[in-house]
Amino acid sequence: MRKRTFGILLAVIGAFLISGCAAVLVGGAAVGAGSGTYLYIKGEMKTDYYASFDAVWSACEKTVADMRGLDVQRDKMLAKGKIDVVIDEEDVHISVTYKAKNVTTVSIRIGLFGNKLSSQLIHDKILDNLTKK
Q1: pLDDT tens, position by position, 4-55
Q2: CATH number at residue 92
Q3: Radius of gyration of the chain (CA)
Q4: Cβ–Cβ under 8 Å, residues 129 and 63
Q5: Which of 29, 51, 59, 84 is least surrounded by CB atoms within 10 angstroms?
Q6: Is the pTM of the predicted complex or chain greater than 0.90?
Q7: What beta strand segments (E) does the chain contain?
């Protein structure tokens, strides 16, 4: 019985790995932070901030201004918004989405394929701007 359970478990894990399930591949490799965890999948880094949508949106705008972003294009709606900007000659796409009361998801992609280190830097600056208030 025990051998059979182990075999089934091994088969399920193998199926996830073969199918390319990114969440399983990333697993515990997500980086912890005060605002939650950063998840980097397919060139995009996401995290949840425990603050209102408007507060997170303002922190994102301040981050773009602090980093001297050029060609800023904002598109803000009721529960989601995006900021497309050029920072240090790199195209940056920031997506802000309302998730729940005082929970807002921010997703960042740098360039066409993503840049984990640069995305992490922008997330850190957003968090700094959120905690300054």
Answers
A1: 665 665 565 666 556 554 443 333 333 333 455 888 999 999 999 999 999 9
A2: 3.30.160.110
A3: 18
A4: yes
A5: 29
A6: no
A7: 31-33, 36-41, 44-49, 70-76, 80-87, 90-100, 103-110
